[in-house]
Structure formats: C-alpha cells, structure tokens
C-alpha cells in the first residue's frame, strides 16, 4: 500500500492497494474521517504499466485528471483486482464481497454510500462530477 498527498490545501489523498488482502486491511483501518472515501477498482497493471483491462486503460487518465482538478477533501484509493483469470473467476472475492459487489471493472464506489460508476461511466466527466458532489 502507498499513499501520496497531492494537495495540502484540501487534504486530498491518493492510495493504492494491490490485492484483496490489502483492500481488507485498508478497510479495517478506515476511521470515521471527515473526508469522503472513494475506491476505483481496476485490473492489474502489466509490465508496461497499463492494466490488462482496456476499459480501465481508457478510464484511468480521465479519472486521474479529474481527481487532480477536484477541489474537495477526499481520499481516493486505486484497488487492483488482480489479473484477468483471477478477476473472471466467479468466486473472485471482489465479486462476492457484499461491501463492493463488483460486476465490471473499472468501478468507482463511494464508500458507505450507494453511489457508483461502472464500466464506461467512469470515462464521463459529467458522471464523475455528480459522483463527487457533496451531499451534505
């Protein structure tokens, strides 16, 4: 797991977890912070630094740019769901875990909420904007 603070003015944090065990560990350490927590689930990166999932490849630069421009206090966590065979297995824990219930990747979820973007929705800035709007 790693963390990078990218904007001290709004306390935006970016983290990466590399598998299901790290995901569980990260979740167990989440406190009731003021910042909203979002998870983006993507396919494992290949040697070239790009995901095996073409849809994840298309969404990642759009999401990364959007998060970089966002002026809100958030925690954003990239979650690696594994290689293609692991992900495609119907018993993949990311699919069966009631906390995330993934059906497709990429998926972005707002933690402890019902909001989510799936597949090609992750490439649409207007949908990203709606997902990240404050509901306070």
From TrEMBL:
Keywords: Cytoplasm, Disulfide bond, Redox-active center
Domain Thioredoxin: 17-134
Matches recorded under PANTHER family: 42-9-9 PROTEIN-RELATED, THIOREDOXIN DOMAIN-CONTAINING PROTEIN 17
Originating species: Manduca sexta
Gene Ontology molecular function: protein-disulfide reductase [NAD(P)H] activity
Protein name as catalogued: Thioredoxin domain-containing protein 17
Subcellular localization(s) per the UniProt record: Cytoplasm
Family: Belongs to the thioredoxin family.
GO CC field: cytosol
Name of a matching Pfam family: TXD17-like_Trx
Domain of life: Eukaryota
Major location category of this protein: cytoplasm
């Amino acid at each position: 797991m790693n963390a990078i603070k990218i904007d001290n003015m709004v306390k935006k944090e970016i983290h990466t977890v590399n598998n299901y065990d790290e995901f569980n560990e990260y979740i167990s350490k989440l406190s009731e912070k003021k910042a909203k927590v979002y998870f983006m689930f993507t396919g494992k990166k290949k040697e070239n630094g790009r995901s095996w999932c073409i849809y994840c490849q298309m969404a990642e630069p759009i999401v990364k740019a959007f998060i970089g421009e966002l002026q809100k206090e958030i925690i954003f966590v990239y979650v690696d769901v594994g290689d293609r065979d692991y992900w495609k297995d119907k018993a993949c824990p990311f699919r069966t875990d009631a906390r995330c219930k993934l059906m497709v990747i990429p998926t972005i979820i707002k933690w402890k909420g019902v909001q989510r973007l799936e597949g090609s929705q992750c490439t649409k800035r207007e949908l990203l904007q709606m997902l990240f709007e404050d509901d306070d």
